[in-house]
Specification:
alpha+beta, 5 helices
């Protein structure tokens, strides 16, 4: 599409910022076309084609300012790329520009508030810069209008006065519109940033709540699982303890029964041994008594025999007895014969006693 000298095409990520900058730069503008494009950085943007008119468009008067273009709240862009007026009717390519900074995820409420403060400060600075630029452009426009009025004064003083008045009125209106537009842009930017910050904070809070709920639910599940495992382990330990206790009791009963049986057997054997020892003791006592009795009887018999032997010996060894026996033999022996006969008697008596 061939462009007129007063037609300008600009591109940028924010439509309101583009309109504000064009209004401050050229004064009255008329939107010719508008379309959404993809910026070189990959972000979405707008391409605006406008027709601008100078502040003194006619010598005989001035046209009323056009109605303000409705502004859609958008994020404040750091810079706007403006395509200069073409010298020939050629298609104008969109200038590359930086994409709007994306809102980083808010890690927590303090960081979100700090980021909100930074964004608000940046928006205020940009709005102030836009206001200063509007004032400078308005001053420049006033100077241009005065120069134009001076040039027109060479031909017609009346036209000059009207042109100067119109220029001043349009400049005042442009300044007022620029200030109002800058104020609206600043308010919209602050409101948009505040809304985005609140949305980001709310989203982050929801994420944290969901994360906390998930962790709490996981902790509850884990606690239930641990408690259930502990209860099952306690039941297993209790069952194992009861089984071991039952086995111990059974083994103790078996050992007790065996011990009782062994004790009963030992007791019976001890009783039998005691009875046998008692019987043997009685038998031994009787044997001892019998032996003592026999010993006493033998002692009495021996004593009697000894007494008899002693008496017989005394009788035989007495001198009268020997002489009597010798007389009975018819001869009277000598003393040597008597001694020999006595010794023979003693030997015979000892042999009889031994027998």
């Amino acid at each position: 599409m061939a462009l007129e000298p007063s037609v300008v095409t600009v591109t940028g990520p924010d439509r309101a910022t583009l309109l504000t900058d064009l209004t401050l730069r050229f004064g009255h503008i008329e939107l010719v076309s508008e379309r959404e494009i993809v910026l070189p950085g990959g972000g979405r943007g707008h391409e605006l084609t406008v027709r601008h008119r100078p502040f003194t468009s006619e010598l005989g008067g001035f046209a009323p300012p056009p109605a303000p273009v409705p502004v859609v709240p958008q994020a404040v862009a750091p810079a706007v790329a403006i395509v200069p007026e073409p010298s020939a009717p050629e298609p104008v390519a969109s200038a590359p520009e930086a994409t709007a900074p994306a809102l980083a995820p808010v890690p927590d409420l303090a960081a979100a508030q700090a980021q909100a403060e930074r964004l608000l400060s940046a928006a205020r600075e940009q709005a102030q810069q836009a206001l200063d630029q509007g004032r400078n452009d308005a001053e420049q426009l006033r100077l241009d209008a005065r120069e134009e009025a001076a040039r027109i004064a060479a031909t017609a003083e009346q036209d000059k006065a009207r042109a100067v008045a119109a220029a001043r009125a349009e400049a005042d209106e442009a300044i007022a519109a620029a200030q109002a537009e800058a104020q609206r842009a600043r308010a919209e930017a602050a409101a948009g940033e505040e809304a985005r910050i609140q949305q980001a904070v709310a989203a982050r809070v929801r994420e944290l709540d969901q994360d906390a709920d998930g962790r709490r639910t996981g902790s509850e599940h884990e606690a239930r699982r641990i408690i259930q495992a502990a209860q099952e382990e306690a039941v297993r330990i209790k069952q194992a303890g009861e089984k071991e206790l039952a086995d111990g009791r059974a083994e103790a009963r078996i050992i007790t029964r065996e011990a009782r049986e062994q004790a009963d057997a030992l007791l019976r054997e001890a009783r039998a041994q005691a009875d046998l020892a008692s019987v043997e003791s009685r038998a031994l006592s009787e044997a001892v008594r019998d032996a003592q009795h026999r010993l006493r009887e033998l002692g009495s018999q021996i004593t009697t025999q000894l007494q008899a032997a002693q008496k017989d010996l005394n009788d035989r060894t007495s001198l009268h007895s020997v002489q009597a026996r010798l007389r009975a033999g018819g001869t009277e022996g000598s003393a040597a014969e008597i001694a020999e006969h006595l010794s023979r008697i003693l030997r015979e008596g000892g042999t009889r006693e031994e027998g």
